[in-house]
Amino acid sequence: MTQQQRALLAAAAPGLVLAAWIVLTGGIVWATLAAPERALLGEVLESRMALVLMAWMVTSVLLALAVQRLWRDQVEAVARLDEETRVQLAGATGRALPEAGSATVRRLAQAIQALVAQRADLQNDMQRQVQASSAQVDRERQRLAALMAELTQSVVVCN
pTM for this structure? Predict the structure, then answer.
């Protein structure tokens, strides 16, 4: 199931749940009524069925919008954050993580961004230390070569 299909199902689910709840509640109420009360309720609802359907549609749309926002702020934002974090782990550290979604997701993105920055600083520091050590070894090698060039007799060097 694709992301778009899941989002559509999440948006349609509240309307379907609301319809099931209305039918179930109506069935329970209908079962508790006597025959004359059922006839009276049938007459009243028959003339107002369009109003009941309109109320159901408006409520379903409002619930769908609420679920869509929750989906965007919780599910999609976390999925994008996961994808961007994996890109950062792969080594593309120049990109900023998306700060979308709920406040918790944004704080998580900021924390991950701080960890990515620390990781980059540590990698740069390690690279500087390796370069400094390589330069020091190179200087010592040159100094040893200069000493060996000035000696007239053979020397055995032991470590």
Answer: 0.56
